[in-house]
Amino acid sequence: MYSYIVRRLAFGALAVIGVSVVVFVVLRVLPGDPLVAIFGTEGFTKLSDAERARMMADLGLSDPLPVQYFHWVQDIVRGNLGHSFFRAESVAEMVARRGPLTAEIALISVVLSWLVGIPVAVISALRPNSISDNVARFLSILFLAVPGFWFGMLIVLGLLFMFGYRAPLANVPLFVDPWANLQIVIGPAVVLGLGQAAYIARLARSSLLEVIREDYIRTARAKGLNRRLVVAVHALPNALLPVITLSGILLGFVLAGSIPVERAFGTPGLGYAMAIAVSERDVFVMQNLVFLYAVVFVLLNMVVDLISAWLDPRIRYA
Amino acid sequence: MSAATQDAVVAQIPDVRAARPWGLRRVGSGLRWFARRSPMSAFWGLIAAAIVVIALAAPAIAPYDPLKSDFRAMTKPPSERHYFGSDQIGRDILSRVIHGSRASLTVAIGAVVLGTTLGALWGLACGYFGGRFDIISQRIIEFLQSFPDLILAMAIAMALGAGMGTVIVAIAITRISFGGRVIRAVVLSLKEMPYVEAARGLGASHLQIMAQHILPQCIAPYLILATAHLGVAIIIEASLGFLGVGIPPPTPTWGNMLADSLNAGLVPPWWLVLFPGAAITITVLAFNLLGDGIRDALDPRLRGAV
Predict the structure, then answer these.
(1) Which pLDDT score, from 0 to 100, does residue B23 have?
(2) Between these two residues, B174 and A51, which has the higher pLDDT value?
(3) Which of B16, B89, B179, B244 has its CA 20 to 30 A from that of A59?
(4) A265 — contact with chain B (CB < 8 Å)?
């Protein structure tokens, strides 16, 4: 197990470095002239040559690219995530203030996806091709096709029309007013949770159907255990192993999905901040936020891999 | 084996191509077989085909010009004149939804074909040559996979600037890793086949072996991958439009229309929200179910792999 942990950590560290290079190439090398990206073509032409040169020097953009990359990494290691061009708040402050809300949304949505997805999968797998199985499968296929942000907009509109209700738009920390906080996060969490539940129900169903055909399940049935007990105690734990891995990947889907979904709900989380940054083409904020999201994604996948290795010896000795 | 006996053996092998010529008849019987096998997929395949036809014939079908404002009908609910209502500046929603299918399908098909093809060729080279090239390539693919799709597409679309071409490239880059992984795995197993060894023994070059013996076997997984990813590509395109880094307005796309509806005051009118989103959902549903059917028909072993 220890050698597996060491190998996985080393690979995680390599992935973080690789990710930083990809982010740097995409957001700093591809755009050509960063000032065009910041001011737009129109704003750029209004600047004089001297102004351009001064801004480039101020921003450290006239250094060679490897030096720029090195400075960026240095800043991140020191915890300096830079600041927006359009707002006074630094990116680090923004993450500290808005991050918890998005983390709550992600966490609640994952819990919801298991609470909905697993029972649906069990009902489906117990009676394959029954009416309940077909309804469950159709619903999961449908939720794979519904864009989360549109579903969110429909929920906002529906609540507004039917109950005249709208979730609070101001950021309220969990420990200040838990009730208001819950109202803010529950909408995006439900939308993202149902989206994941569709994937989870699909995978858990096929995984369960495979496990149910194993010899040890037949043995358990043959010694007289009742069907439900066999499924709950013998089949389900083994069938859930691939679902745990999928859940890790889906967390990345939640991180990305929360950007348009928070925009649709008007949730004051990090995803909304990212939606604003991308629409304003705020390159430096995007660079750091994209890197942050990717690092969180890499770490989550590492944790999920370690959990599956701990649960399944076949993985750690492979 | 002398040349004469070899010719004699070859002469005895029935020519499969002569027995079953490619043609309308064979395509028709193939389609009938597919429809009998999975009627559900065939039904959604028909809907997907209908959406493609609507996209191709959009100017003929749409009742109004999607860009033309009618200032007498601003933000009007669905009526006899405008079946899906009209937006803030009096553009007909039905016409915009119909024209929106063009952007959506062009981007989705373009991105999936570009991304999957690049990934497949890369995976082919990785699987076939192996060694250091393969190891380095696998690391690069893993770095690309360390980003959630939408975030990578957003960053690339923003960096390259708005436009249909950049949206296609942005989404295509997120698809490369899938093609690379699946095709590499297929090639790894094919490489050990006796007929590949035989071809190598006969002195065929690497290029010949790849093109004649390995590539044809990759066509089924390639088709499956490409159709399976159309739905995801459509959703990413809509999300990019919604976030303002997609195809720039005034081009009607479903994502742009949903983004516009948020600007229609504090409470967006329901018809501005309902119809574009429903169009996305139905299109993605159709392509996903068609993709599932194609996968099950061509190669059920790939279930779960793509």
Answers:
(1) 62
(2) B174
(3) B244
(4) no
Task: Residue B295: list chain A partners with CB under 8 A.
Answer: none
pTM summary value: 0.86
Question: Which residues, in sequence order, are CB contacts of A248 under 8 Å at separation 6+?
Answer: A300, A301, A303, A304, A305
Chain-chain contact of A145 with B231 (C-beta, under 8 angstroms) = yes
Helix/strand/coil for B199: helix
pLDDT in tens, A151-198: 999 998 888 888 877 777 767 776 777 787 888 888 999 999 999 999
- Asked whether the beta carbons of A218 and A135 are under 8 A apart, the reply is no
By Cβ distance, the residue of A26, A252, A264 closest to B159 is A26
Domains of chain B: 91-306 (1.10.3720.10)
Show the domains of chain A with their CATH numbers.
Answer: 2-77 (no CATH), 95-311 (1.10.3720.10)
Buried b or exposed e, range A172-192, using 16+ CB within 10 angstroms: beeeeeeeebeebbbbbbbbb
Structure tokens at B214: 């390995």
What is each CA distance from A161 to A156, A157, A166, B19, B269, in whole angstroms?
9, 6, 10, 65, 11
Nearest in space to B295 (alpha carbons), one of B31, B33, B38, B32: B38
CA B297 to centroid of chain Cα atoms: 18
Task: Find the closest chain A residue to B254 by CA distance.
Answer: A150
Task: Give B270's contacts in chain A (Cβ within 8 Å).
Answer: 157, 161
CB contact under 8 A, A294 and B258: no
Partner-chain residue, chosen from B146, B238, B289, that has the shortest CB–CB distance to A141: B289
* B131: exposed, middle or buried (Cβ count in 10 Å: 0-12, 13-18, 19+): exposed
Listed in sequence order, the residues at least 6 apart from A116 whose beta carbon sits closer than 8 Å to its beta carbon are: A193, A194, A197, A201
What ipTM goes with this model?
0.87
Q: What are phi and psi of A225, to 5 degrees?
A: -65, 150
CA–CA separation, A261 and A189 (whole Å): 9
Distance from CA of A105 to the nearest CA of B (A): 17
CA triplet A7, B151, A253: central angle to 5 degrees?
70
Interchain CB contact of A147 with B (< 8 Å): yes
| Interchain pair A161, B284: CB under 8 A | no
Q: Which long-range contacts (CB under 8 A, 24 or more apart) does B75-84 make?
A: B75/B264, B75/B269, B77/B269, B77/B271, B78/B271, B84/B271, B84/B275
> Residue holding tokens 């890793």?
B177
Q: Tell me, what's the pLDDT at B18?
A: 45
Q: Residues A262, A268, A274, CA angle at the centre, nearest 5°?
A: 65
A15 touches chain B (CB under 8 A): yes
Q: How many residues does chain A have?
A: 318
Q: To the nearest whole angstrom, how far is the Cα of B149 from the nearest Cα of chain A?
A: 8
A142 vs B: CB within 8 A = yes
Q: Which residue in this structure is represented by tokens 């307005």? A: B249
Tell me which chain B residues have a C-beta less than 8 angstroms from the C-beta of A141.
285, 288-289
> Which of B114, B54, B113, B46 minimizes the C-alpha distance to B287?
B46
